[in-house]
């Protein structure tokens, strides 16, 4: 009964039982009705269909990969060459700047030495001048002391002479009356008293008086001369004191100026020493940095040694850097090739696995849909039979 009713239920003219497949190039499975199938599709990734064999695909991919790697390596090599040229230029400029600073430092050191020599010569000359001035001052002071003692002696003699003069004046005033008396007595004496000459007692007294008068005049003249000499000595003493004070002030002024100049030169010398120490510290740091850089280059050259460049002892710095660059580029190229081959192999295996999974999924979906449709038809048939 069931087998006889199946042809009536499964009608071949029913459009729902027809399976229509689109162009297989698009590789899209039919999972929707025909009415909504021709609408604009969005967010659909079309999978290209590969018709070539796997060996040809791998060969073409390897050739394209090698060309791309060659171009990339060429570009990287150009970039590394540019960076190396920049580094060489920078290294050269630093070396030139260091040489220029070293020459400037040598010039400054020479100038500092010359200034120090000039300053020492200047100090020695000032010391000699100071000693000569001190000797002159000591000689002048001794001379002034001698003159002062001589003036004091002459002043004492002048005082004594003046005292004696006063005594003589008093004595003359005392004996003046006797002189007047004797002179008046001579007027009364007869003329015959002069005939006796030597026998007369008056003539010795007169001669003694004349002698004393002459001595008195000589002493007065000598006293005037001594007074003039004392006054002249006093004037000379005042002049010498003024000259000495002026010279002392000038010497003090010159000494203060020299002291100020000495302090200024000391400050400049200290500043120059500080600047020199700072420049020496900077140059020492640069030399240490340069030594560290050269040691690093030598270590890299020993680790990246290539026999094509010859023995390591005969290489200069630029040759070592070229060898290190070539070694690093070679290693990087090998590593990139291995990674690319591994990535391409993993990509191919993943694509193959993905394709197999999609084929299995589509087969399972078609079987499930057919099973669902058959079950729905069986349920309808049972309902109609009931």
Secondary-structure content class:
mainly alpha
Strand percent estimate:
under 5%
What can be said about the biggest beta sheet? none
Instruction: Determine Rg (CA atoms, Å).
Output: 69 Å
Instruction: Give unreliable regions as ranges.
Output: 1-10, 21-29, 381-386
Please write the string of helix (H) and strand (E) elements.
HHHH
Q: What's the N-to-C terminus distance?
A: 13 Å
- How many separate helices? 4
Description:
- With 386 residues, the chain is mostly helical.
- The protein is 81% helix and 0% strand.
- It contains four helices and no strands.
Which labels suit this protein?
386 residues, mainly alpha
What does the secondary structure layout of this molecule look like, with pairings?
Elements: H1 2-9, H2 54-188, H3 202-303, H4 317-385
How would you summarize this macromolecular structure in one to three sentences?
This protein is mainly α. It has four helices and no strands.
